[in-house]
Amino acid sequence: MSRWLAVLLAVPVLADAQPTRESFLPRARRLMREAPFIDTHNDLPEMIRLKAAFDLEKYDPDKSLPDIDTDIPRARKGMVGGQFWAAYVPSQYEGDGAGKMVLEEIDVIHRMIERSPHLEFATTAADIVRIHRKGKIASLIGIEGGHAIDNSMGMLRAVHALGVRYMTLTHGSSTAWADASTDAAKHRGLSAFGLEIVREMNRLGMMVDISHVSDGVMSAVAATSEAPLFFSHSSARALADHPRNVPDSILMKVKAKDGVVMVNAFPAFVDSASAVAMRDVFGVQRRYQAQWPNDPQKVDSAFLAYINAIPNTTLDKYVDHIDYIAKLIGVQHVGIGADLGAIDKHPAGLDDISMFPNLVAELLRRGYTDAQVKGIMGGNVLRVMRKTEAVARRLQRTRKPSVARITETKVAQ
Fold this sequence. Notes:
With 413 residues, the chain is of the alpha/beta class. The protein has a single domain, classed as Alpha-Beta Barrel (TIM Barrel), CATH 3.20.20. It is 44% helix and 10% strand. Helix 3 crosses helix 5 and helix 12 runs antiparallel to helix 13. The longest helix has 27 residues. The radius of gyration is 22 Å and the shape is globular.
């Protein structure tokens, strides 16, 4: 054996070594400069409520907020191009202050945007693209919990006028007109009034968010809505068997309706073991409500402590959900709804809002093309927004505002 051959045989073979996620970060950041990274669910407004009673002087998102995973400096570091801020109303406020709370949450979102040099208010897909080009974070509003409109079409139109562009039909508990995924069914899906809510949201141009709802509601919305299906923060039930996640049968309806599933990063909806452990998560919340019926703040605090005690997961497992949906129904039907803001447990590698480039880099590492990654980052939800806006323009020419009242509608058969 020659001396040089012996040297070559002694060198470790590196040809099969896989590139690291970090090696894709420069390319990831370039794509995030070229196209907006849009996340459709962040609960920062809830934390401003819980920690400072909506006082932005006491709890200023433009400064570091080290006790939570979100603030504006870290959002800029994370290269966020568009963010839907959630106006979240816990289920226990239904019929007892829900409308007031949602207006206060919407108000604090507006005040947060107005005082920040880094945020700009947006209501349309075109706004997001324009604001991203200016180097600011396009800031939009979504309501989490349909009980927030107090069973009122007028309230629905009022919050739309304030800039709300999606509404999650339920949260953890079934409402007077819609069944939640984590509560007993009351309506076999949507009541007649609930169906009318969907139609009015179509007319307004508000995305009908079917995260948190029962499978029956998902199917009812698929059959009723004239706009694409939209999940603001849900994952794949095939990988994590939790009723909050989307079953394959509904994923096929998302494809048929040209919709999008914005994938949730909360470990209980990502990791299979955590999903099983947390199947009764909102049942626990209802038990806290029964224990402290006159102290909703104590309920909120206890519930947050409970959900933040679950085991953690990884960024790899999170991206597995994106992979699963992309392979089953097409890469054009998946996006990011990470559900940051109020959680203490995060996939390792996505520890706070500043780490979104890691997510983009992981997509690139797995072989997604630049165009596909730009779609997952935000292009797919922009398509859904544009189609929802087009449906509204068409319906407003032929359909008058609904005057339906919940007392005048019967349960849908």
